[in-house]
Design goal:
It is a single chain. The protein has helices at 10-34, 40-53, 56-77, 84-111. The chain is mainly α. The protein has one domain (10-111). The longest helix is centred in the C-terminal third of the chain and has 28 residues, at 84-111.
């Protein structure tokens, strides 16, 4: 079950999402300018840190943002989008990023008990 920390105010949650959105856009820009060089490990680190520092719910929002940013960076970089493997790879990234987010959130809840 995904839990939102009741101690955080709405302002802090919105501010966290805003800052993480800006960071995700910056990572997408770096992904775009690097071209064929894969920066997936940076996406994993970003998702792990954002989930650890905030919550699993905000981490899942970051996963959605990262997947969208990665798709747009590949699209504007001229990556071959018309192949079936592209959809499969995109789904795989979304699945792996989601699992990473949920595992970090679970680890944090186990440690904090």
């Amino acid at each position: 079950m995904i839990k939102i920390d009741a101690n955080k105010s709405l302002f802090k949650i919105v501010l966290s999402v805003l800052v993480l959105t800006i960071a995700a856009l910056a990572l997408g820009y770096v992904d775009y300018i690097t071209g064929d060089v894969s920066i997936d490990i940076i996406y994993f680190i970003f998702i792990g840190i954002s989930t650890w520092r905030t919550s699993t719910f905000i981490g899942l929002i970051c996963v959605t943002e990262v997947v969208l940013v990665k798709l747009f960076a590949d699209y504007y970089d001229g990556y071959t989008i018309n192949t079936n493997l592209y959809e499969w790879n995109s789904f795989s990234y979304a699945f792996i990023y989601t699992i990473t987010c949920l595992m970090v959130g679970k680890l944090k809840s186990i440690i904090n008990k």
